[in-house]
Protein: Serine phosphatase
Organism: Aphanothece sacrum FPU1
Amino acid sequence: MNDDNNFMFQLVRVSNLLEEPINLENGLAEAAKLTAQILRSQRCSIMLFSDESDDSVNDPYLRVFTHYGNLPTSAYAEVTKLNEGIAGYVAATREPLLIKDLTQSKFVTNARYLDEGHNSLMSVPIILSQQVVGVINVSIPLERPSFVEDELDIVEIFALFVGKSLQIAQLQTIMRSKFVEVAVIRDVIENNRQPAVALHSNPTKLAKIVAKSFYKELAQAGFSPNQVIASATEVLNLLQDSLERHKKRIK
């Protein structure tokens, strides 16, 4: 199979991911794998923005969501702010970046994983609804010294697919629950948002929207503060029971 046919075959595989019910983690892991394979690279990682509470971080930050290849486990605990490091720079500028030799670039001091003899990498923003929601990184080209511009174009195509995967996963989450659907509609109306902005890829933001709607529904129904607290406590108890059952199944 020649390179052009192989590229089209891989794109069809990614397209098929979009047509199926998405488990986001599995879907993006497969996208990272396909990206690395078609670009003949050893490593590909997908980073997404998170706004989860962190006492040491006040601003939005990137974290590794999934990867393919030999990325250290410690990478998942690392936090990257806007304009910090290579991924933070790409997220801030919204521009794709190709580095042919990291040791000869201005980013050498920002590199976290310098591999001797493998210093070329590509980093591309993942854009959804005109917002940067993450970054896809490809590094360590196989059987050649560096990546080239044409390969950067391919990463940009895969970044588009990743963005669409995030959007579809979000829509599937909303459509599975009438309550969540109503909560998102209420958020759009009350905050004068564009619908696409409300459908953000970050599940933490969606959870906050649902929580606010849950509280407002109870308050409008005449529940007292103590009754609202009791309802929230019951939700936590149900979650705890679910986690316990999950632990037993694993054992």
The mean pLDDT is 77. Helices lie at 3-19, 24-38, 85-93, 149-175, 178-190, 195-198, 203-220, 225-250.
